[in-house]
Amino acid sequence: MSRTVIRGGLVITAADEVEADVLIEGEKVVALLAPGSDAAEACQAGADRIIDAAGKYVIPGGVDAHTHMELPFGGTFASDTFETGTIAAAWGGTTTIVDFAVQSRGATLREGLDAWLAKAEGNCAVDYGFHMILSEVTDGSLKEMNLLVDEGVTSFKLFMAYPGVFYSDDGQILRAMQQAAGNGGTIMMHAENGIAIDVLVEQALAAGRTDPRYHGEVRHVLLEAEATHRAVQLARVAGSPPLYVVHVSAGEAVAELARARDAGLPVFGETCPQYLFLSTDNLAEPGFEGAKYVCSTPLRPREQQAALWRGLRTDDLQVVSTDHCPFCFAGQKELGRGDFSKIPNGLPGVENRMDLLHQAVVDGHIPRRRWIDIACAAPARMFGLYGRKGTIAPGADADVVVYDPAARQTLSADTHHMNVDYSAYEGREITGRVETVLSRGQVILDQRRFTGRPGHGRFLPRGTCQYLS
Fold it and tell me: SS3 for 246?
């Protein structure tokens, strides 16, 4: 069994910051040792590899609990495969993704899960799990939910948006929530009133408002808040299974989550870097450039960002994931020229999340340990992976990042590794950069040189939400 020592760095977890040497044997963290102690010196003497982290942070590998590799959407597919997307994740210090298997209409959950397992198997450079998208709530799919929980697929996504594609009505949502209340599963909710949005889309197009910026206007902030409120009340009626509202973009929705949490309900919220760093100014960029920033929920006015940062500081929002769903500008986003409703919804970001959140530390929005909490520990805890993922502690998987907090970089499509022809953060200068990455004890990024391989990543059966255990 190989032995690796990471020495001289500041180890930062969600719980603590300590100067320590990290001892890794095989795939696991074995100990944190006081630098210069007899134990630390003895371990270094017998190490197969010593990684010098002097002046650097040593942090857990990131856990991105919301990605969409190879997702079919709007007549095309997300441009990152499981291979390209997980390699990009590794470059950005993320060592675990939880993607989404999709139940096709007329098919079973098992068929959908098996199809996505086949897409990922042998292709992932980092470890991965799956949530399950319920496209149809039927007696059969409800029963299958129990079987999937037993197999470690413990979270189920439903949509209040996209009528005719993924949409579920309130009765279907209630039934799925009731099932989750019985089997311990977590309900993930895309909370937007899709029926009302479709009315506004039709009216906008009829009035000749076809540019990308109207995507944000028709998906009104109040329709996100209303759907969030409705999801909370349906969960209460169903017996309060864990409810996780994805890609929260505005203060009105955060307020609904805060009210639910103040009432003691197991309600949780996620936001994404695009809502923290981008805005409707991007959607309104001249020409068709705004199409690059079309996602749902949409980007909001810049004034909304303060409420999101506050929610992250007060724990009314627990997680920052990416909702990574890239479509190239050429040939994919361009499908919506002349009709914003045909622009594929999604942004690239799996490579940028850890760095952008470190910039938030530099800017004073969050402290260092909160950075690690919202990017590593909380998503692992939310989706039944904590203890194995999301921390640096004896017994945890040796998913470890050596991070240079002083390095300067400029984000650009010219230098990123995502399989997409633009960067949502083109030209943004940030402080901090991933230097070396270990996945289960194996160095997959060595001093900014990729040394990993597709197929290293393993499927992760997950437990249920650890916030309730």
Answer: coil
DSSP reduced 3-state for 140: helix
Measured in degrees and rounded to the nearest 5, phi and psi for residue 352 equal: -100, -15
- Phi/psi for 263 (5° steps) reads -85, 0
- Is the pLDDT at 176 greater than 80, yes or no? yes
* Model pLDDT for residues 362-376, shown as the tens digit of each residue: 999 999 999 999 999
Structural tokens at position 39 = 């134990």
Residue type, position 41, single letter: E
Q: What are phi and psi of 183, to 5 degrees?
A: -105, 0
- For residue 402, what is the DSSP state? E
Question: According to the model, what pLDDT value does residue 1 have?
Answer: 86
Q: What is the per-residue pLDDT for 469? A: 64
* Distance between CA atoms of residues 69 and 84, nearest Å: 9
Residues with Cβ within 8 Å of 361's Cβ and at least 6 positions away in sequence, in order, are 367, 368, 371, 432
- pTM, entire model: 0.97
Q: Is the dihedral of CA 151, 155, 158, 164 positive or negative?
A: negative
CA nearest neighbour of 135 among 163, 155, 154: 163
Residue in this structure with the two tokens 């950069």, named with its chain if needed: 433
Tokens linked to 301: 């006015």
